[in-house]
Design brief:
Largest sheet: 5 strands, mixed, barrel
InterPro entries: DUF7999 (IPR058312)
Order of helices and strands: EEEHEE
Radius of gyration: 11 Å
Protein name: DUF7999 domain-containing protein
Structural class: mainly beta
Pfam families: DUF7999 (PF26006)
Number of helices: 1
Number of strands: 5
Organism: Halorubrum kocurii JCM 14978
CATH architecture: Beta Barrel
Distance between the termini: 30 Å
Oligomer: single chain
CATH class: Mainly Beta
Number of domains: 1
Strand order of the largest sheet: 1-2-3-5-4
Amino acid sequence: MGRTGKYTVVRACNDHGAITLREYPRNGTLYVVEYDDPDVEAELSSLDAGSVVELNLRRAGRRGNAWCAESAQPVDPA
């Protein structure tokens, strides 16, 4: 199962490589805990809380609300 959309960074990347996101503009919370490649991880690790990013995600294993980022593109605030 995958999903694509815009997400707001709630908590920047932590020491374990996880980032907390909120669906934009809705309020569903999800956690990115895996990355398809180091470039995607570097892009997300560089974002601060409040940043908006467009992501392609897929479930990370069978965990309920954990996701793997396949691609990331920061969104300029308008």
